[in-house]
Amino acid sequence: MERTTIPELEEILGKEVPCLDHGFVRLIDYMGSDESIVQAARVSYGKGTKKVHQNRGLIRYLMRHQHTTPLEMVEFKFHCKLPIFVARQWIRHRTASVNEYSLRYSQALNEFYLPELDVIRKQSKTNRQGRSSETVPEELQQKVFSILERTTQQAWEDYQELEQADIARELARIHLPISLYTEWYWKIDLHNLFHFLKLRLDPTAQYEIRVYAEAIAEIVKIAVPLTWEAFEDYVLYTTNFSRFEMDIIREILTQLPAHINWEELAKSKRLSSREAKEFVDKIKDHRNF
Amino acid sequence: MERTTIPELEEILGKEVPCLDHGFVRLIDYMGSDESIVQAARVSYGKGTKKVHQNRGLIRYLMRHQHTTPLEMVEFKFHCKLPIFVARQWIRHRTASVNEYSLRYSQALNEFYLPELDVIRKQSKTNRQGRSSETVPEELQQKVFSILERTTQQAWEDYQELEQADIARELARIHLPISLYTEWYWKIDLHNLFHFLKLRLDPTAQYEIRVYAEAIAEIVKIAVPLTWEAFEDYVLYTTNFSRFEMDIIREILTQLPAHINWEELAKSKRLSSREAKEFVDKIKDHRNF
Amino acid sequence: MERTTIPELEEILGKEVPCLDHGFVRLIDYMGSDESIVQAARVSYGKGTKKVHQNRGLIRYLMRHQHTTPLEMVEFKFHCKLPIFVARQWIRHRTASVNEYSLRYSQALNEFYLPELDVIRKQSKTNRQGRSSETVPEELQQKVFSILERTTQQAWEDYQELEQADIARELARIHLPISLYTEWYWKIDLHNLFHFLKLRLDPTAQYEIRVYAEAIAEIVKIAVPLTWEAFEDYVLYTTNFSRFEMDIIREILTQLPAHINWEELAKSKRLSSREAKEFVDKIKDHRNF
Amino acid sequence: MERTTIPELEEILGKEVPCLDHGFVRLIDYMGSDESIVQAARVSYGKGTKKVHQNRGLIRYLMRHQHTTPLEMVEFKFHCKLPIFVARQWIRHRTASVNEYSLRYSQALNEFYLPELDVIRKQSKTNRQGRSSETVPEELQQKVFSILERTTQQAWEDYQELEQADIARELARIHLPISLYTEWYWKIDLHNLFHFLKLRLDPTAQYEIRVYAEAIAEIVKIAVPLTWEAFEDYVLYTTNFSRFEMDIIREILTQLPAHINWEELAKSKRLSSREAKEFVDKIKDHRNF
After folding, report:
1. Is the pTM value of this prediction over 0.90?
2. Do B121 and D166 touch (CB under 8 A)?
3. What are chain C's domains?
């Protein structure tokens, strides 16, 4: 018996995917594959299911029904370089293992995040936590950039002065800005990684962490293509309607001609017959809650 | 300052809610309330938001957008008595604290779960993991009941014989059936409890654990009425459509008269104007992914 | 039945314990007590143990033998105000719930940590991660203080300028130093809190987080006095010897007069007879591994 | 760049290590090695530490000082077959991923644990949770064995009868004994695996789970030999003394000749000079708490 190996991953192992001005993500190690998810799912389903479900179908079934424990059987380890303010959002995902560069032990490096002019925006009026989709005058962009640059360089010079005076590193760093780059190893299983990606690929996530989420998504897509496809179809790009919203939709649908054959329609649109049936159950409210 | 107290909960504290033939659930202790969730959410939103969001609106907003960390601020501790096979499903929810009665230290009691005749069913043809919705002849029900009763009583007599021979308790118990009742204290926060309830209130959950989930749901409803309402509307009774299913729905909707004002319709059905706008975005696919 | 209440805690509920120059810790809510730990432990031990163990003895037994699951039955919720660099160390304790003030939603306040002159030290020569125990000349202290003060005030002025230009808050903050104060609600169970305290009360922990650990320790001591005492005796102030170190100790002890009665000696020093026996087993290596 | 590979592990991958009468443990997949732990530790320590610490020394330092986060970078996945009562103890280790054979989906197999005659013992008089070290008469062993065998075979026959009547599998199984074998995939990182092993290799752990812990320990020893050695020396075979016990030891040591050079003694017994210094600090109570 041999370990699961993904040849396409071996090629990109260790290669830096650049993120922002000085950051990167690189895959360092991994365990498992689409096949491992199938294997773990089948121990629950027992003998004789191999013929019934093909791998892709089984993975899609798991994802559609939120049977996510088999996803935990796949693990990724990344090496990341990222600004502290991004690290602070990222670390809130608790179900991961982290080893971070420590400024108590080691000297800081002169690397701070400075945004590209184009992503310098005003506060959004509609989204209290984000930035506006409108660009701002170049003059203002330049001014903001200058302020950020001046401030970080001053902080860096002060840090060097404190270092030269041999002040304890754990103190000499406390005035450094949260745009300073840090590094870490980050290890996480696929179930929890999908949760991270769902939140951090979202358009409302801060641009600077989204850049990292997108870099990781590209790697995961290569690693587990079948599971990634199912994740997009049944998790990432789904639409969830509340109880009241469904009332509206169902009321509207009664205005449609009665003879619409939803099940046939569904099958004509790439849904398997099992999915088509589930779809009709949802539309017609045949589920028993 | 005083601890959050929920007078309605104080009245039911410690009272057993019977479950199955010998089991129960009872609330032993709790921390927090609807108010604690609001308080935790507001530390993120900062000064000045108090007037903007009323409590109910804020809680509904959190639930609709899966901002679930404030839910972790509420904690419940239950005392439960349940058959081992139910305990085995239950314990798979890992983010909880458990102290269970141990048969290594203590003697087993003569309490085994025997199903009521009516819930003895055949294997479902459509749901590989469940039982059929059709009842079976009373004669068969009786026969099954007799087998289960005979078998558990034999196991109990054997256990007593081994106990009398002073065989180590950790060994004397190994032939006891998984229908034996056990007891535990179970402590969990509201976020993780909602996850448990979503899975275990589902019609596909095994009947015997659903009984416990329903008993707990009744208690939670009393404890955090606003949050429970939002949980029902935005989590428990929602409908999730895959990318392809939405394609079908959107195509069908193009066959409707163009002049339907979805936003007005939504407002006429109890949706707030903010929700109505979100609803239209979902229907029209205005979200930018 | 009523909730466990600790009258001594009710008195300090909500009161700020000042930490560093602008920070604080205050207990907001709690669940459980020494009594809850005993209750949870007894469900494992079953009927009839009540007379055998008194509460204090049972708690000490649990702590001595690392039976820590009953400790999870006690929960505390704190409101803390702390510098970002302290928050970054603190958040590494993953088994807790956190809601933090967000600078994406809310404006920063003009509050930065500036160390008292006396704690400004040089890098330790013996401890690569810490600061020296020797004081530095007052002149150097003043100089360091001035640098830190100047730098944070510059950052604050720049922040205000960016705010006035209505730059998105999530960007306007990125040059703010990690000495900026943040706030959060932090909820954790006693088992995990003890782990936090063991690490952060340690003399090698950074001074600025130790201040918070000490404030929390004082509160816990009031909340669960019996458990705290056992924590000090059997966890916090214990000494752990490696296999080889024990070889040395045992060899040295052979040089002592043979007639030393270790068990009697132990009993004369406050150890219970059970503990005295355990002590002799450890010294004489009577454990069977 | 290539994934960490451990040639010695590749040879045993997938091979069953028999446990009890029908059970086994086999390693299915893994990620990381001693080298990965060193790599993760060094990101914290930064540039320039490579020469100072050799790998073995660094790993021993980490283990001695409970810097366990780098251990989380190593992951193992096992396939196990084990009796339900063992699974029930095992699953209490929550920080692992599990996919278990489900008797709701699949038929039970006729495999039950029956103890070898020699491990059938009476209840221990000194250890309330365990079995006695004394053997019992062969006649009693035979009698116990017969009872267990008879009872499990009766349960099996009843199960078959219920299966033939097509009773729902989730019900037909409820009278099966906890000695029934189940199977699962179990994935865990090295830090949490060490915690599992420390508890389950302990002489007070139930014999039947200890058998599995020992099988896993043999595999881990091959996988990460340097880390395993450090685990034995600094965790598994250590001796922990309470505050009061240390008072006794220190008092006794004052009776020894004053001229004992503890540091030299330590060095003569395989301790590094750093460890020797730490040892003296512990003996003389030079640590500052």
Report:
1. yes
2. no
3. 1-111+179-238 (3.30.1360.170), 243-284 (no CATH)
